[in-house]
Fold:
Amino acid sequence: MNFVLEPIAAVGRATLALIRKAGAMSLFGMAALSHLVRPPFYWRVFFTSLIEIAYFSLPVVALTAIFSGGVIALQSYTGFSQYHAQSAIASIVVLAVVRELGPVLAGLMVAGRVGAAMAAEIGTMRVTDQVDALWTLSTDPMKYLVAPRLLAGTLALPFLVLIADILGVMGGFAVSTSKLGFAPDAYIINTLAAVKPMDVIVGLVKAAVFGFLIALMGCYHGYTSRGGAEGVGSATTSAVVGASILLLAFDYLLTDLFFAQ
Amino acid sequence: MTSQPKIRIRGLKKAFGDKKVLDGVDLDVEAGTSFVIIGGSGTGKSVLLRCILGLIAPDEGRIEIDGEDMVTAAPRRREELVQQIGMLFQNGALFDSMSVADNIAFGLRAKGRAKADAKRVSWSAARLAAGDILKQVGLDPSVGALSPSELSGGMQKRVGLARAIAGTPDIMFFDEPTTGLDPIMGAVIDGLIVDCVKRLGCTAIAITHDMASAQRIGDKAAMLYQGRLVWQGLAADLMNSGDPLVDQFTHGRREGPITMELRR
Structure:
């Protein structure tokens, strides 16, 4: 009997643990949000985080976007040329980049870079008593460490995605005109005709949600880390994995919300 | 008529799972005195301090500061009561993203945070004042430009002390202040602690394994064993208390009533 019940019990335990974790993260996020609207707000921490996310992530996001745009152009040319539909490539590139690849790839890059850094920084502060020290210095750690980072993540990612959108389209343009023989003016006309303001806006909304989730995962796993260097290492891994999965799940939900007919 | 103790603890209990860490701690600390708590590793000394600071919620009991129970106080009021307390952490707990001067300036500005009616000190003024506070703990103001990772263990403890006293607290906690330091540096830190406590006129609780440090810092002392304070007396009497538990601990004897839990 145990042979049958044990796997079911294991699934049940894992499900309960997942639900408990989701609940804890939601409460953590709501507590952090409540600190955003209650003074004091630590502007110095906010601007430092904003520069760390928005400025220092620019190179990695830019390179990812340029190459992704180029790859889409190449891949779609290979497929579409079989049906003599090469003229659709400009539309495919711009829509793929603006609606999906810009927000998702920029989000994944920032999750790897910034989410991990946040978890490591706050986790190290936790295991070396710096978080408790904040408390003894009349400073609420949620207000000081978490709330400014959440706001910075939410505002920085739309900026990065806007840059990624432009560079991704330029990557597709460069490959299409230099390698696939497209006329530059026709490519630009097709691109502008295909993209609508709503596509860009929804991409930026997605980016804001992704930025919030990445910062939330980094802060949550860092804040709750235990057990020295090993605990900080595992918090960092959990932050990146958790943010990446949540990001893709929310990408589906937001796409379904905005684009499903 | 007896004066009200600055800190009064009654029946404090805290368990983590099945393990009872604090099992009915009663403690009075008179205003302006230094109280040292000794005890073996894992006996709950740090948990006791963290309960008083509000970092850990006790399961039962009262923690009064100036007669006001912190456990049942409204969260806002509890924050105000905790804001009277400064703490020197075992490893210094300096903010490694800030310079030494900024660490101390942060402590100085905490005073403004604590009292809503107080005028907050600006960062630039706080950084200037940090140099004077560094001098009070025997460090040159030029140390302020360094980052915490560039300091030795003893210097980190001094900067931690400087940050804690910057906000002129009414109560100071010291968590293992001499752990990891050589005997001379330990004596220096103890001397600084005694000076700072006297100058501020504050009430202090220190927890330590170091008997020499306990006698240098403390006016009174107590020993925590199996979740309870099993002995209380003058710190000067620690080495000849007459209590078999205290005697075994203070003289570091293997044989005696204290049995160490060995884990396989």
